[in-house]
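INFO worker-7 received task bundle
INFO bundle size: 2
INFO processing item 0
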Amino acid sequence: MAPRVPSLRDMERISGWGRAAGVLATGLLATGAWACDTCRPRVEAGIYNEHFLGRLALTLMPLLVVLWLVVLIVWSPWSDARPRASSRRSFTQEESS
């Protein structure tokens, strides 16, 4: 007996979380790009050339901008998330025992 092929109705029953888990698993299990032994040196030479540091900086720039915005939001004077000295409670020897 051959295995049953899933119908369209079966596919509609898969939840959004199931789809998200499937996409995540596919991304985590995917292999990296590769080149044959003949082409590999040329591929690496094309990546690690004199423009590598500039391209690396451009790649990391969005991450640095988002990190800067998070720090700005957390440590801003109008944010309640900012730790303040007045909000910290100091314990004396009598309170801690």
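INFO item 0 finished
INFO processing item 1
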Amino acid sequence: MYWLLKFSNANEDLFQHLLFEIPRFYAEKTRPPKGYELEVEKDLRNYLDYVSEVSSSYVYCIKNMLRVYAADDQSGLLVLLVGNEAEKLGVWLENDELVHKSSTVLGPLTEVPEMDWAVMGITFPGWLVIFDETAPHTSRDETGEDFEIVYVPEVEKYKDLFEALTPEKNTEEAASLLLNMVFSSLPLRL
């Protein structure tokens, strides 16, 4: 449920690299296999390929949600991965060259260390949610890769929701808080 990394020389580029690697993990893991065990007619095969692509691109399962938290430590930046697949992701991230040479893996945890954790991002298969204090409302951006970015405003109005989004919350509670933030920050229809 928890995986801890420690960066002694963390900077914004390294942290952005880490956030962008997590959706790539899901893209590799959830990419549907090509082909069918059953021989089908040519016309039907084209339709099945289309259905396979469409259905796999619209399934975003809550259980795959992963949260990324950061906290300052006296000797560097601690990054806590929280979610059902945090351990698999942590092991996968160890193979990333930049993460590997820039961090010390502290590994899986059963409890959250008592620190002042701040949520930095939330990922789903195909999506990366970033909290942006300059965003006036929720918006999204295409990356040209296997995921899109959703920007959620980090403003005083939602301070209670951000403070409630602690690492100790289970996935369903965290998803509910995130949806409240997203829905509350959508622009009004004119």
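INFO item 1 finished
INFO post-check item 1: Residues 2-28+61-184 form one domain.
INFO post-check item 1: The radius of gyration is 18 Å.
INFO worker-7 idle
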